Amino acid sequence: MRMDINIRMRTCVHLTLKKGLELQQVHIRYRNMASSDDEEDLVVVVTTATTTLIAFYCQYFLEKTICHDSILSGASHVDEVLNGHDARCQDSFRMEKHVFLRLCDMLKEKELLRHSNGVRVEEKVAIFMLAVGHNERNSILQERFQHSGETISRHFNAVLDVIVALADDFLVPVGPDTPTEILENPRFYPYFKVLHIFNQDLSHKLN
């Protein structure tokens, strides 16, 4: 339907899309639309504004470039280390291969950790061991395992929680007696003797 009266129109469409530190704004202003082609002009304005908004939306939310595009995935890296020389596992994961595999099996047997979203338990433990064993940053682990920073952080914290839960199975309070390995070894006993006396005194006070 054609417009019969003059319309003083000001349309301002503001689009603010934030991606990192980038801000984009689109301003569309039309004034004094009074010609016989008012209706067609309005259609053009609306169409242009809508197309622009859709283009920005696609650019920032749909057309994402894959960052982690290495042909060697995290799972492949773990398999390569575990199937390689024993020294590689020791160097990478700070434990011998059979110890690493036994730890992973234990976590699975106790149902403390399980495979999830294509990430195996072995890969999760490897992420944790590289982080604590080499003091690797999240960004380095992202590149090594081809996962996002959020995924790396989530798996690291999951393994950390279950390792803490295993403390009672591996950490035993020191008893009042000095272990034979320390008592009969002159390299150790002179240094641990003070600690032994302290433990005896502390145990006596607690009892």
UniProtKB/TrEMBL annotation:
InterPro entries recorded: DUF8040, HARBI1-like
Domain DUF8040: 70-164
Regions annotated as coiled coil: none
Pfam families: DUF8040
Domain of life: Eukaryota
PANTHER family attached to this UniProt entry: OS08G0106900 PROTEIN (PTHR22930:SF259), PTHR22930
Protein name (record): DUF8040 domain-containing protein
